[in-house]
UniProtKB/TrEMBL annotation:
GO terms for cellular component: membrane. Signal peptide: none annotated. It comes from the Bacteria. Residues 17-331 form the Endonuclease/exonuclease/phosphatase domain. This is Endonuclease/exonuclease/phosphatase domain-containing protein. Gene3D superfamilies: Endonuclease/exonuclease/phosphatase. It holds the Pfam family Exo_endo_phos. GO terms for molecular function: catalytic activity.
């Protein structure tokens, strides 16, 4: 749900007749997740719903809208101009994060459970240079940009959700794709440092303060979720950096690298181009780019990537032949079911 024209997505959603959005909604309705992160949802840039999410729920998820009484859209860096323009056009590439307008490619969290808005923490404004041993390409950006450039291309946020009295901290982000580079490898480097930022957030790295000046680590239980634009075995990203995240001791092994890594047999048939036949593919290229990573204290029960009805938590078609391989996006919905007992809910 993104467009180079600001406000265009809101107009498309309001008609209720967009075929691509209808297909996306069909996957959401069939899966019916308790908590859902939607990536690449345009917004006003400074956070909050400009009407797009409310209209999407009302027009396309009519039977589901009551399931998501809570939603949150953080401020993002995409399309955000620098403080000093220096006679250079800021957009789309010359901005804090790539975008034709401030708020393009944002993301939204939808939830059945209350969102603890007063406890949300953001690392949107962390300056790239402040990260020790950062990978910002030398002599590529003007000096005045280097002092302003942020690590997060969109935003890195921690959103607590209250599930039966237990706070689950949702760590949401959408790092930049590690491609569309020149020899300077600016996007490759930024993607790697955005992945490292996630680790630094949960470890409470010494250099790091969130936008509220708090440097405390994110305590478990937590769940990392988002389009991380990195695959541990294929593609153009830094495979070692995504590997460090997936093997982090604070993250449950099963859905990161073990027997519950989300997969689909249908992905072998439909995903190609870069990694043909990869059952863990969440993208049409065959790459695993989209993740749900619970902390080690949380017990995952099952998981899947939705390419067909066979991949639904509760298949609605008896023969499982419904095909979601072309349903509105080049990414596929990923779901992970967790054991409520591991949340001390009884």
């Amino acid at each position: 749900m993104t467009s180079s024209v600001q406000g265009e997505v809101r107009k498309r959603v309001s008609t209720g007749g967009d075929e691509r959005l209808r297909k996306i909604a069909s996957v959401i309705a069939a899966t019916s997740p308790d908590i859902l992160l939607l990536c690449e949802v345009d917004q006003c840039g400074d956070g909050g719903d400009d009407g797009t999410i409310k209209q999407f729920l009302r027009k396309y998820l009519t039977d589901q809208q009551e399931n998501y009484p809570y939603f949150y859209q953080p401020a993002v860096n995409t399309g955000k101009p620098y403080k000093q323009k220096d006679n250079v056009k800021n957009q789309p590439d010359f901005a804090q994060g790539y975008g034709f307008h401030h708020g393009q490619y944002g993301f939204a969290l939808l939830s059945r459970y209350p969102i603890c808005t007063d406890e949300i923490r953001s690392w949107q404004k962390v300056i790239w240079q402040s990260m020790p041993k950062n990978r910002m390409p030398a002599d590529y950006y003007p000096a005045w940009v280097e002092t302003q450039k942020r690590i997060s291309s969109k935003s890195h946020v921690m959103i607590p959700v209250d599930i039966g009295g237990t706070r689950i901290k949702l760590i949401a982000c959408h790092p930049t794709p590690p491609v569309f580079d020149g020899d300077e490898k600016r996007n490759y480097s930024r993607n790697a440092d955005e992945l490292r930022l996630i680790r630094d957030m949960i470890e409470g790295a010494d250099y790091l303060c969130d936008d509220g000046e708090c440097s405390d680590p994110i305590e478990p239980p937590f769940v990392i979720l988002g389009d991380l634009n990195a695959d541990q075995y294929f593609g153009d990203g830094d495979r070692e950096e995504i590997g460090r995240l997936l093997t982090h001791p604070a993250i449950h092994k099963a859905t990161a690298t073990g027997h519950l890594v989300p997969a689909s047999h249908r992905a072998k048939r439909h995903a190609g181009r870069i990694a043909k036949g990869n059952p863990f593919a969440t993208h049409e290229s065959g790459l695993r780019l989209d993740y749900i990573l619970p902390s080690a204290e949380i017990s995952p029960l099952d998981s899947r990537v939705v390419w067909s009805a066979n991949d639904l938590p509760r298949p609605r078609e008896a023969d499982g032949t419904a095909d979601f391989s072309t349903n509105g996006s080049d990414h596929r919905l990923v779901w992970v079911d967790i054991d409520p007992k591991s949340l001390n809910l009884g």
